[in-house]
Amino acid sequence: MEHFTLLMLSQMNILLNILLMFMLNLLLMAMVATVFFVFILKNPFKEGAIKSRFHKMQKLENIGLLACKVAHDFNNILTVIGSCADYISVDCDDSEKSMANEILKSVDSASMLTNSLLNYGKSASLKDEFFDMNRLICNSETIFRQFLEEDIDLIIDNPNEEAFVYADYSKIQHALINLIVNARDAVNSADLSVNKTIKITVCRKNKSELLHDFSFEVMDEYENYVVLIVEDNGQGINDFVRENLFEPFFTTKTSDAGSGLGLASVKDIVKQYDGKIFFESEKDKGTAFYLVLLQAY
Ligand SMILES: Nc1ncnc2c1ncn2[C@@H]1O[C@H](COP(=O)(O)OP(=O)(O)OP(=O)(O)O)[C@@H](O)[C@H]1O
Ligand SMILES: [Mg+2]
After folding, report:
1. What is the chain's mean pLDDT, rounded?
2. Is the pLDDT of residue 245 over 60?
3. Which residue's alpha carbon is at the smallest distance from atom 11 of ligand 1?
4. 12 to each of 2, 9, 17, 270, how far by Cα in Å?
5. What would the pLDDT profile of 230-243 be if each residue is shown by its tens digit?
6. Which mutation among 251, 259, 280 tests ligand 1's pocket best, with the greatest number of atoms within 8 A of CB?
7. Which residues form the Histidine kinase domain (predicted)?
8. Tell me, what's the pLDDT at 109?
9. Multiple choice CATH, 123-294, 3.30.70.120, 3.30.565.10, 3.65.10.10, 3.90.950.10
10. Does residue 11 have a pLDDT over 70?
C-alpha cells in the first residue's frame, strides 16, 4: 500500500511538472508574441503613421510659409499697380478715369485677399473682435460678386436681428469666399435649365433649433449659435467626394483650377473658434454648407 502511494505521488509529481512546464511554455510564448507585436510589428506601423503625418504637417507648414511669402511679394506688386493707376487717373479723360478707378478698386480687393492670407498665419487672439455677421455679409457683397460671373445670381438673406460672434473678421470672410468659389464652380459644372444661384443666409439658432431645423446635433454646453449657410443649385457631391471633402489636397478640379486646400482651411478656421462645419448635398440638385459659430451675445 505504501509502495502504491509512493508510486502515485511520484506520478502526480511528474504530471505536475509536465503541467508546470506546459504553462511556463505558454507564458513564454505569450511574452514572445507580445514582444513581437509591440516591438517588431506594431511600432514600425505606428512609427510609419507618425512619420507620414509629420511629413504631411511639415508640407502644410511649408506651403503656408510659401503662401505668406507670395502674398507678401504680391502685395508689393499691387502697391506699384495702385500708385500707377492713381497717377494716370489725375490727368486723363472721363472714360480713362473710370478705367483707372476700376483698377484701383480691384487693387483694393486683391490686397484685402492677400492681407487675409498674411493674417491667416498670425496668432488668432490679435485680430479677434466682436462683430455682427450681417455687417460682414453686407460689407463683403461687392467682393463676393467679383468672384462670380454675371450669369450667377447671388442672393443674400439677412435676418432682421443682430448675429454677433467673436472671431477674426477677415478669417471668416476668407472662409466664406472659399465656400462661394466652390459654389460657383459647382453651378458652372452643372447642366442647369434654371438660373445659376448661390444663396448666403445668416441666422441665429439655439441647440434644439439646430437639431430640429437642420438635424444637426451639438454636444457642447453652449446654447446659442450663429449659422452661415452657403447654398448652391450646382452639381451636388457624390459619395466618394463626400468622404474626402475636408482632406487637405483633395480636389476633383484640374491643377490650375483647384489645389484642394479650400475646405481644409475653412474647417481649420471654424475649429479655431469652437465652431462646426457640416453640409447637405443632393446629386444634381445642389449643396449647402453650414458654418456654425458660437453666438457672442
Ligand atoms: N459646393 C460644392 N458642390 C460640389 N462639390 C463641392 C462643393 N464644394 C466643394 N466641393 C468638392 O470638394 C472638393 C474639395 O473642395 P476644396 O475647396 O477643398 O478644394 P478645391 O475647390 O478643389 O480647390 P481650392 O479650394 O484649393 O482651390 C472640390 O474639388 C469639389 O469636388
Ligand atoms: Mg475650393
Report:
1. 82
2. yes
3. 245
4. 15, 5, 8, 72
5. 999 999 999 999 99
6. 251
7. 69-297
8. 77
9. 3.30.565.10
10. no
